[in-house]
Amino acid sequence: MLTRGGIALLPHARACLAAAAAAVVEFEDRSGLLGGSLTLGTVGGLEGTCVPHLLGEYYRRHPGVAVNLVGASSPSLLAGVRDGSLDAAVMSAPREDLSKVIGSRVLLRDWIVAAVPAGSRSADRPMTLDEVSETPIITYGTDSGVRGFISDAFAAEGLRFDVAYATNNVALQLALVVENVGIALAPYSSPVLLASEKVTVIPLDPPISFHKVFVWRLERNLNAPLKAFLDMWAELAA
């Protein structure tokens, strides 16, 4: 229990701690020895993108920053950026416009493709959504940002979108395809999709495209680790 004197001094103590923390950040910034932490949210399937290279380069430049990677679905990641529990996130761009308080940069453009058992069909001819709708569909759950793009594409063609098996784990989707459960609809950039010899990847007609983006909360004073990451990205993308 704090005494009355302690309670009276508490605001001053907090102010001193805040000033000390700010002084440490300023010293690290001026000396080039950046510290602190960076919490990044990530969707799955980023192994084959530039994200590992960006994180590797960030480590080489700022080894004193502790980077925490948090995996979740795109809607959950966006909510985390908005409420401040995440500094930034790599996710599927939402179908609606991002709010004015969220900044974004495009990481890559991706496409949804169909995965069927190897040898069951040639990859030379695209598969129509009408054909897909006639088979059991294996794809993402309703908590995934990607699923909305797929369901919208089927609706635009006047087709029902009935999912037989839903999982956000692409490797499990493909395992179900190998077991002849149905056709998987997954992003072309997924490393496990491109590496599997047990499935054939077929483009869709019409194509279903979406973007993966890097998002962060726009604030007047970004924390130093996030600002350093954004500056590095801008430099490498130039």
From TrEMBL:
One GO cellular component, as annotated: protein-DNA complex
Keyword Cytoplasm in record: no
Similarity annotation: Belongs to the LysR transcriptional regulatory family.
Keywords from the UniProt entry: DNA-binding, Transcription, Transcription regulation
Record has rRNA processing as a keyword: no
The protein, known as: LysR substrate-binding domain-containing protein
Pfam families the UniProt entry points to: LysR_substrate
CDD domains referenced in this protein's UniProt entry, alphabetically: PBP2_LTTR_substrate
Annotated ranges, domain LysR substrate-binding: 32-235
Gene Ontology terms for molecular function: DNA binding; DNA-binding transcription factor activity
